[in-house]
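@channel anyone free to eyeball this complex?
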Amino acid sequence: MEQPILQIIGVLHGDIISREDAPRNFDESERVGTLEIYPEYQEGLEGIAPGQTIVVLFWLHKSSRDILKVYPRGDKSKGLRGVFATRSPARLNPIAISELKVLAIHGNHLEVSGLDILDGTPIVDIKKKISR
Amino acid sequence: MEQPILQIIGVLHGDIISREDAPRNFDESERVGTLEIYPEYQEGLEGIAPGQTIVVLFWLHKSSRDILKVYPRGDKSKGLRGVFATRSPARLNPIAISELKVLAIHGNHLEVSGLDILDGTPIVDIKKKISR
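replying in thread with the prediction:
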C-alpha cells in the first residue's frame, strides 16, 4: 500500500507556546483556544453544537518521529517504556487525540476548552465522542 | 507546511470482511482479532499488558476521502450532517479510533476484543487510554 498522506483541515490558535507551559493531557487542562477550520471544510462542521465534547486529532508537527522508547512524563525513575504504552508526543505518527469542550461556534471558528496543544498546531480531524 | 505522511506500523487480522458485517462502533462490539505490529516497531509495545484498554488508530484505506456531509449511520430520516459531527469512516483523513481490550500478547501480536474494523486494515498508532 502507498503511504497515506494527511490533509490539514485547520489550525489551532491558543496561548500555549512551549512544551514547558503545556498541561500534560486534555484531562488536566482548562486552557481555552480556537480551532480555525479552513473555509473549504466548514460544511463538515454542521451538527456540532456548543456544550458538546468533541474528539480532535492534531498533527504534532514539531515532534520527533524516530523514537520507540520514552521516559513516561519525563520521569526517569520508572525506566523506559514503549511509546505505544504512553501518550508521548514523540512517536512514529505524532497524532494527538484531545477531548475538548465546545464553548461557542462562529462560522468556521470553534472556541474550545481543555487544550494541551501548542499554538499553531495543524488539525487533521474532528469526531463525535463515544466511549466504552 | 508539507503534507504529513503516515507510516504504517502494522495490520489488523480479524473476521470482519464487509461493512455490512461490521459493528457500528467499538462500544457496540465484542469481536476479537489480532494486531500484528511489524517487528521493527515491536520495542514500542513494551509496557502494554493483558487486561488493559488501549486506543488504536487505524487508517481506513478503503474509505472515500472527498465527503463533507453524511447521513448519520446511513439513516436518511434525520438529514445530512457534517462529517466532523459524526464518526463516519468517510472523511478527509480516514483515521478510525478504537478502544480495544488487550486479551493476550505474543511478541509483536496483540489479541484484542472490541473490533469494528475490517480485516487487513493498516494500523498507524497505539496509545494509552485516558478520558475526561
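from a first look: Chain A touches chain B through 52 residues (CB under 8 Å).
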